[in-house]
Amino acid sequence: MTSHPSPSPQPPSHNGKKHPSAAGREEWQAQLEEEVAQLRQTVASHADIDQAIGVLICLHQISPETGFTVLRTASQLANTKLHTVAEAVMCWARTHQPLPAPIKEALDEALRLHADTPES
Fold first, then answer.
1. Higher pLDDT, 78 or 26
2. Residue 15 predicted with pLDDT over 90
3. Taking Cα atoms as reference points, which of 51, 65, 69 lies closest to residue 112?
């Protein structure tokens, strides 16, 4: 009977994934750097959205849930990304420069639709 040599042990894996070879490390590092950049952008975008909700809460005496609903609805009505609407609200709050017309109209309509929504 012939015995087959057992495979050489693999280095421990991280989170169940094999470590990349030296040739694949640069690609792996680039993917990780891209993911980190995306996560940082997401965190910054969420901060803008939360702050814009705060502006709406203060100005219109609405709940945080209604504030988010108003922003989301305005985003849909203006066909503009949510974080862009939030950034416009924050810019208006800081500078008192007028909101872009499509965003202002969408926010006004969203407030009409949701400001009277009963709180849960």
1. 78
2. no
3. 69
Give helix 22-60 / helix 64-78 axis angle, nearest 10°. 110
- Buried-exposed string 58-87: b where 16+ CB fall within 10 A, e elsewhere: eeeebeeebbbbbbebbbebbebebbebbb
pTM for this entry:
0.68
Residue 49, both tokens = 């959205």
The confidence score (pLDDT) of residue 17 equals 63
Q: CB of 23 within 8 A of CB of 57?
A: no
Residue 45 carries which side chain, given as an amino acid letter? S
101-120: string of b/e by CB count within 10 Å (b at 16+)? eebbebbeebbeebeeeeee
Query: From CA 69, how far away is CA 67, in angstroms rounded?
Result: 5
Q: What is the mean pLDDT of the chain?
A: 84
